[in-house]
Amino acid sequence: MAEQNNQTEEKEIPEAESEEPKAEEELVPKSELLKVQAESDDFKRKWYNVTAEYENYRKRTASTKTSAYLDGKADILLKILPVADNLERALLSVKDDKTKEGIEMVLRNFLKVLESEGIEPIDPVGEPFDPTYAEAIMASPAEEGEEKGMVKTVCLKGYMRKDKVLRFAQVVVTQ
Description:
Distance between the termini: 130 Å
Order of helices and strands: HHEEEEEE
Number of strands: 6
CATH class of the domain at 120-175: Mainly Beta
Number of helices: 2
Strand content: 15-25%
Helix content: 55-70%
CATH superfamily of the domain at 120-175: Head domain of nucleotide exchange factor GrpE
CATH architecture of the domain at 120-175: Roll
């Protein structure tokens, strides 16, 4: 019997020990669970913020990179536009037909290259003067049948890419 009592006591002690921690575990996990959930929500919010900031940074960097590339390209194109101007002047002064054909061919190829880059010439002759596309370098009296404020001639051709003017056309405007 003594052995039975010892066995019963041993069995009861572990049960008693196991019952008390269960009651405490139930109280602690609820408060701990709330605390951990709050931390989890905070970490999740911070993660969303960092992810959004990174995405914005990535887009901004890509946009800046593209813009810088296009601006650099425009700078180079501006430097070679005088080649087209000189070819057009050469066409006006050449008298030999074979030479004229050769210069026209070179000019056409040059203009195709510009066109492939999305660059279009600005030719405002006969249109009302628009300072967003042209620069008035001279004024000329309006002749009979001409309206005031119209572009009479283009002295230097202008060029634009999409909506951006690369070089303003230099024009003579009627007054």
